[in-house]
Each structure stands twice: as structure tokens, then as C-alpha cells.
Amino acid sequence: MQWTLPFALEHLRVVRIPMSVRFRGVDIREVALFNGDGLTGWAEWSPFLEYGPAEAATWLAACIRSTVERPELKRDRVPVNATLPAVEPERVQAVLARYGLWRTVKIKVAERGQSLEDDLARVRSVREQHPDARIRIDANGGWDVDQAERALRALAGFDLEYAEQPVATVEQLVQLRRRFDEVPIAADESIRKAADPLRVAQLGAADIIVVKVQPLGGVSRALEIIDETGLPAVVSSALETSVGLAEGVQLAAALDELPYDCGLATGALLNADITHERMLPTWDGSAAVLPSILPTVDEHLVNQLAAPEERQEHWRERLRQAWEHLPADVAG
């Protein structure tokens, strides 16, 4: 179907969900949802508040496409990792306990206002308490090349699965890999925020790519990027509700190969949700997994978590501005 701006405005609902722990600077997650006549269920649009209209439009295109795109699934469950924000070592166990049983954890590092010593203490705490865990770190491009080399040399002793986006640009990733190649590199922002996400593969900047449905414009576009780069992919979340997380699980379930646990268990970082069946991981005997189902939204929860009117209007204005940047194939 083709959406129109009046249709989208009429069916826009905004919720505010408190976080269980501060994550990427967010204490309360604001999410826009759409539902109404002509939609086959609910759809999520949740660009972070600092994103401008052009970037938010890519997320909106993914939202619209999600109402008509259903990939062919190759599996009915998807293995997922725990995600540990940049907390103090003494809080590590309490946060990880929210995920239940897990075998892989992604640890946030290079947090603004923290030091390499803080990162080492956090990773050391996880390794000491979970000696068999698969540990990956995520710097969100927070280091320059010198800092990243120093950090990776210091952290390599903890047997890292990979380091995600240690530096900000593709060119810096190339420099870093030339200097130190003992830890595999995964590209995230260099894929989802890049004008040309294929440059990562073309320049040999990473071993792995991290893909997220909304930032890439939808499941079909993400599948194209994975195919065109030819690199193994880790499907991850953008801190969505269970509606958005289910789209990520659908993407992961559509891949021919899934060598890495996916970053799709971030529902554990939310103190509430809008669905009857929250997308929270269970243990299947070998890994923490999420089912490849589309959860049922509970309208009572949507109403309970509704943002105040001034925030609803803020999102309506965001929608008007983002609409101007939508590709023609998704808007009437």
C-alpha cells in the first residue's frame, strides 16, 4: 500500500518507556507507532531524538515497508546476545541478570566521561565472573586511531570475539586494521550512517558488518547490503519496543547463515513494553533465543505509556519534516 501524510498523522501514537538502566544517554525511550484501517498490524518508527529529518526519513521508510514486506524465513528462532551498558563493575551482574541465561555479551566501552581504565574494569568483571562467555565490545566510534589501538591492545587479553566500530570513519578503520589486526573489527555506524555502506567491504575496513532494520530503510534493503558486501552480518537493534525488535528477528531469520549471536535482546533494558508477548530471550539448551514471531500489541499498554500531548505534537512535526525526505516508493 502507499501511505499518505494525512493517514500517517491520523494514526500516529507516541509512547514513553522508562529504561531499566541508562543506555547511549537515554533514560526514557520515546517511540512512535502507527495503526489503523489499511494496516496489517502495528508498525514502529523510533529514530532517536537527536536525528534530523533526512535520517529520520530512512527509519520512516523502514516502518512503512514493514507493513507490506515479509521475508522468507530460514529459521524459527534467532540466537541473541546480552548487552551491557557502560556501568560500574559492581553493577555488572545485576544488569546481566535481566537477560537470564546467555552465552554472548556485548559490552559498551569508550563512554563519554569515562576512561580506558573504566572499560578494562568492566570487561575484566565480566570475564572473571563468566570465564566461558563470548565477549564483544562496542565503542560507537568513540576513539581516535591511537586511542583505539591502545585500547584494543589492552583489551585483547580478554579474548574478544570482535570490536564494534572502535573508530568513527571507514578510513580510520582501515588505518586501525593495518596497525593492529589481532581483534576482528565489526562496522556499525560505518554501515547504517554511511552514504555508501558498501565502502566498508570495498576498502577492507571490517571483518563483520552490523545491520539494523530501521536505520537501513527496511528488511529488504538490509538484505541487499548484506548480500552486496559479502561479509558476515550481525543483526542488531536500535533500542526498539517488541514491535521493532520483531522486525530485526525477521531479518536475522531470513539470512542463509547466522554465525554470530544477534543484538536483539535489548528489550531487557526497557522497564515496560507495548505487547502481550515481550521479545525477551529464553534458553533453548545452547543459546539465548528470540522467536521469529510478530507480537500482539496491547492497546491498554499503549494508552498507559502514552506520551503527553506536547510530545505527541513534537512527533507529529517530526513526521511532517521527515515526510519531505521519503523515497517515492513508500509515500503517496
Question: What can you see in these coordinates?
Answer:
- The structure is a single chain.
- The chain has 332 residues and is of the alpha/beta class.
- The protein has helices spanning 5-10, 53-66, 92-96, 116-129, 145-155, 170-179, 189-192, 199-202, 213-216, 219-229, 242-254, 299-304, 309-323, and strands at 12-23, 26-34, 43-45, 77-79, 82-84, 104-108, 134-138, 160-164, 185-187, 208-211, 233-235, 282-283, 288-291.
- It has a 7-stranded parallel beta sheet with strand order 5-6-7-8-9-10-11. Strands 1-2-3 form a 3-stranded antiparallel beta sheet.
- Strand 2 (26-34) and strand 3 form a beta hairpin.
- The chain is globular, with a radius of gyration of 19 Å.
- The model has no long low-confidence stretch (mean pLDDT 95).
- Keywords: Lyase, Magnesium, Menaquinone biosynthesis, Metal-binding.
- Pathway: Quinol/quinone metabolism; 1,4-dihydroxy-2-naphthoate biosynthesis; 1,4-dihydroxy-2-naphthoate from chorismate: step 4/7; Quinol/quinone metabolism; menaquinone biosynthesis.
- Converts 2-succinyl-6-hydroxy-2,4-cyclohexadiene-1-carboxylate (SHCHC) to 2-succinylbenzoate (OSB).
- One of its GO terms (biological process) is menaquinone biosynthetic process.
